[in-house]
Design brief:
Number of domains: 1
Number of helices: 9
Shape: globular
CATH superfamily: Vaccinia Virus protein VP39
Structural class: alpha/beta
CATH topology: Rossmann fold
Distance between the termini: 24 Å
Strand order of the largest sheet: 1-7-8-6-5-2-3-4
Number of strands: 8
Order of helices and strands: EHHEHEHEHEHEHEEHH
Length: about 250
Amino acid sequence: MDRINRIVVDTTHAITDLCVLATEFPTDKSAFHVQPGHTPHRHPYTAVYDMLFATRRYEPLVLGELGVLDNMSMHVWRGYFPNATLYGFDAFPDKIEAARRAALPRTHYALADVSDRRSLFDAFNDTGRTFDILIDDSTHLFDHQVLFIGVALEFVRSGGMVIVEDVFRGWDETRFCAALQPVYPYFSSGTFIETNHAEAYSEGNVEPYYNNDKLLVLVRNETPVARAHPTAAQNRQRLDAALARPDFKARGRR
């Protein structure tokens, strides 16, 4: 990958199975998101996700999402990917415990803090799995999104996707391009997808909670990342070695 492309998709006239599931289990990934008593955010992602995932819907995929919140999106993924193994990650123990009580089949949960590279690495590593899809729907903060991508690439198989949700329309995309330059060699393609829909709604007056209906989709290439599933002590030694690499030291990130 030598650039991040950009496309604009209007899904006003699309209603997919994923759109329907996202109304049965209300999540702001859908432009049809409705909750009594207030106007929730409605990001028009579900039809775009159906376009990205439909050909692999019935495969035994491994999907992980960072940001469990009320567990609705995990219900949606469980319904859409009947043969997948799902992992939900969140920084708040109460969210994890509540999600576990739903007892969704082949769905696992663990603590992970997107602001802490070690926390993310340990959480993904402890699954013992290589993911087909890893999604960040957590804080929506730029530095955390970049950190997520840098860790996620270590755990996504060739042809798999690293996806960041809720990128702000007003952010200068070259900022992402510059920050992600060190990881370009690990991806075969990268695309900003600006999603539009007549029923979309993500207004507000304080970042990071408004006008953020854009996805960043990165596809992993065949460049190998040497990684086993070591003990916790070995894991931290491996991570410290990775953080000492010139590309990370040059950026001054944890």
